[in-house]
């Protein structure tokens, strides 16, 4: 029976489907909470995730339970627009007036110029046009915007009635204005209440406005409704600004591409390209897909992807990114990745998914806000009841003050204070080729006290060159190179590539090799010809009789010059030494100095021998640990973590254990390989100075969060006291809520303009 139940559970797990929608109209964290809690109550729904900036709802849905249409209907009842992923959701805003028609977006098509004077081919008339481009709807065209206009007009009309007729007539006009504006708010409050969410800003607004009408404060009730509508519009505008960074990334990839078909080219949608197809890229065009150049040499501006402002020369065999700009000459390239998985798409996906990796501070504030709102509501009830009952005070006065407290009870500004800053920081970093996977990573990076660098490809250029060939007695240089190249054939290690490049340049015939096997931290062995051969460190070679004492001494001299030396030998037959040098990156020493200025220590971890490591470290002014196997790096990171917070920077593959062990693991790389997935963050520009820049960005973000939290709590605290004392009333209370939310969001947006590459 148990086996049957386990089998049943396994089948259910296999057929549970992950569904995703685009949800519009979410302008603050309270909106995401409404959506999440409403959907979680539905049968068969689990693992609900709502991303505010990405406007995304994703969840697991068990078959035969809740239909997707029911989920969509639930979201619409809350006042939001929704559509399945890939479709355009209507921009239905949460404040929709009765009978108001949803605003549709205008679509336009842009014609593409298909003629090219530089292309050696004829162009057919395109059979595909650029996908319709969306235009952002102006605030006054949205439901919330129309609500502001209508409630403002009604409020003005009520004041005019009061001025031209009498106070009594004006009072009825204010009542009418309040009720008309309150109806859609009350409707949303009722729907949220039905879904088990009594503590919403709409619910508090409804109670406060109704109470104000009951005690005769109709004018203030109408003003509060108007200010609430204005605040929601401002929240929407601010949230839209925060999203623009992510949307701008998506717009970097062109909508169309010139696909080569036979002897002609035709314009096709870029998202229809397939791996292996040939694409023509003209000067001034954006590259439509990740690919390899098969013909042409040109300068390529990669700043849209990596933030690197100086164009780099790319030629046959080089890879190029989607979204980069071809600046000089016609290029023919072969598509190497699906459109949905190009570099830009992966960066966007990483930034959007990073919203779900919430910082500890954000989780704490979320827990705090769940207690805060009921506590303020309880305090409001006490303010209404205690003074009249205990001290014989006037009921109307204390009901009014209690209602003002209700409006302060919504923690919107506090809840949005962290995610708004995180989203802005992620966008700011992505624009400059610095990626971090969420708020938890940013918070950890801000606390960094020690940075551990891998050497090869991180502190050094990763393209070492052979500097010395020292054959053993009776061995020719060509034989030494041939055996070494045979052992290293197929390896992507930088030292192996240096040997293979030298063999190719010397036109040495590389013998066939088989059964190649890496010796972790020591070298490589393979059967070359009919006998086993090794390319290893001199110390390992000396241990197994691969080199003599004189060769060991010669290797020591070369290592003291900062060169990496490998010994090449067969069983009982030394073939010689090969010395290789990898120069430090131009900005490596500068990066170490910047880290020191930030109060962060730096250490180089390398598998090289101590003499070579000392020579490189001396140039950079950095501490080092040498002769390290992968497990040694892991142990070192573990030890350093006990002393503080360590950021490890490596290539994202060979250093994977150390990257995972560090508080923050950052991969150096172009972004076209697994570097984006293996670590907590990535530096796409291959600049070592981006390491201190990453820490500066993280620290600036945490500073911004502290400002936001202080602003949100400070304003609430001030108006909490002034409302109880009767100094401020209802309309000031609503400003304390919506105004604080807008201020916090605008403050977070300052991070979009923050340049972490500049030293303070």
Structure overview:
This protein is an alpha+beta fold. Helices cover 49% and strands 18% of the residues. The chain has 25 helices and 29 strands. The strands form six sheets. A seven-stranded mixed sheet has the order 6-9-8-10-16-11-14, with no helix packed on it. Helix 6 runs antiparallel to helix 7, helix 7 packs parallel to helix 12 (412-431) and helix 7 (218-250) runs parallel beside helix 25.
* Count of individual beta strands: 29
Largest sheet strand order? 6-9-8-10-16-11-14
Number of helices: 25
Question: Mean pLDDT, rounded to whole units?
Answer: 81
Helix- and strand-based class? alpha+beta
Strand content: 15-25%
Uncertain ranges: 92-135
The radius of gyration over CA amounts to 33 Å
N/C terminus separation: 67 Å
Helix content: 40-55%
Instruction: Report on the biggest sheet.
Output: 7 strands, mixed
- Shape by Cα distribution: elongated
Secondary structure layout:
Elements: H1 2-15, E1 17-24, H2 29-40, E2 45-51, E3 56-61, H3 68-77, E4 81-84, E5 107-108, E6 122-123, E7 133-134, H4 143-164, H5 167-194, H6 201-214, H7 218-250, E8 256-261, E9 264-269, E10 278-281, E11 291-295, E12 298-301, H8 303-306, E13 312-314, E14 319-320, E15 325-326, E16 331-335, H9 343-354, H10 360-391, H11 395-408, H12 412-431, E17 434-436, H13 439-446, E18 450-454, H14 455-459, E19 465-471, H15 477-488, H16 494-505, E20 513-519, E21 523-528, E22 531-536, H17 538-543, H18 549-560, E23 564-570, E24 573-581, H19 588-597, E25 601-605, H20 610-620, E26 623-625, H21 630-643, E27 646-650, H22 656-661, E28 664-668, H23 675-678, E29 681-683, H24 690-725, H25 730-749
Parallel strand pairs: 6-9, 18-25, 18-27, 25-26, 27-28, 28-29
Antiparallel strand pairs: 1-3, 1-4, 2-3, 5-7, 8-9, 8-10, 10-16, 11-14, 11-16, 12-13, 12-15, 17-29, 19-24, 20-21, 21-22, 22-23, 23-24
Helix pairs in contact: 4-5, 4-7, 5-6, 5-7, 6-7, 6-11, 7-12, 7-25, 10-11, 10-12, 11-24, 11-25, 12-24, 12-25, 13-24, 15-16, 18-20, 24-25
